[in-house]
Structure formats: structure tokens, C-alpha cells
Amino acid sequence: MDAVLQALSDPGRRTLLEQLRQGPATAGELADLLPIARPGVSRHLRVLREAGLVEVRTDAQRRVYSLHPEPLAELDDWLDGYRALWTQRLDALHTEVARGKRQTRS
Questions:
Q1: What is the tally of structural domains in the chain?
Q2: What is the domain-level CATH number for residue 39?
Q3: Lateral strand order in the sheet of 54-59
Q4: Could you tell me if residue 80 is inside a domain?
Q5: Within-domain flag for 36
Q6: Which of 17, 24, 39, 72 could be joined to 66 by an S-S link, Cβ 3.0–4.6 Å?
Q7: Model confidence at 106, in pLDDT bands (50, 70, 90)?
Q8: What's the domain range around 11?
Q9: How many CB atoms lie within 10 A of CB 96?
Q10: H-helix or E-strand spanning residue 7
Q11: What is the CA radius of gyration of the chain?
């Protein structure tokens, strides 16, 4: 999970993942999304690939990347405990707001 968190820590890599969420893309198409040179984009794609977040296949002269979301499931499981904490607090806030509205009406 550390590799996934490290990969997600960079906004450029998150931009690449967002694009790949919509479907596979070539390295050139992905490079057009970031205001950096192609070697920098290649380094970002390597980090994402090593974290298991993207897969690459060769199609003639092109490298086509696609999202591999399974590592995000482990991260989602880890966040689930925090999500439950916030859900409980937001439910308590909702209850207090509703109670305040009822008291204002009466």
C-alpha cells in the first residue's frame, strides 16, 4: 500500500490516473495532459506501473496504458475505518442541525 500512496501523492500521476479511468490511452496522449517533458511523463508512468496501478501493452510502435484499479481496493479498505468515523460524526451533526431547526419552529 505504501507504493500506491506514494504514487498517488503526485498531482501529475493523479491526472494520468483520472484520464485512464475513462479508458486506455497511449503514452503520447497521456503526455499531452501534463506540462512537462515526455521523459518526466515516462517516469510518472513507471511509478504508476510499479505501484500496480496501470498496465501497459505494446500495439505496434505505441505503448497503450490502462488502469489497473485492484491496488486501490486495498487503500479503500484502509480508508473504510476513517470513513466510518466521519459518517458517525456527520450523522451526529445532521441530528443536531435537525434538532435546531425543530426548536426554531416551536
A1: 1
A2: 1.10.10.10
A3: 25-26, 62-67, 54-59
A4: no
A5: yes
A6: 24
A7: confident
A8: 1-68
A9: 10
A10: helix 2-8
A11: 20
| C-alpha cell, 13 | 500521476
49-104 tens-digit pLDDT: 999 999 999 999 999 999 999 999 999 998 988 888 888 889 899 999 999 888 88
Residue 2 lies in a domain: yes
Residue-wise pLDDT tens digits, 14-27? 999 999 999 999 99
Contacts of 27 (CB under 8 A, 6+ apart): 38, 41, 42, 45, 62, 63, 65
With residue 106 as reference, give the H or E element that holds it.
Answer: none
DSSP string, 10-77: SHHHHHHHHHHHTS-EEHHHHHTTSSS-HHHHHHHHHHHHHTTSEEEEEETTEEEEEE--HHHHHHHH
32 is written with which cell numbers? 499531452
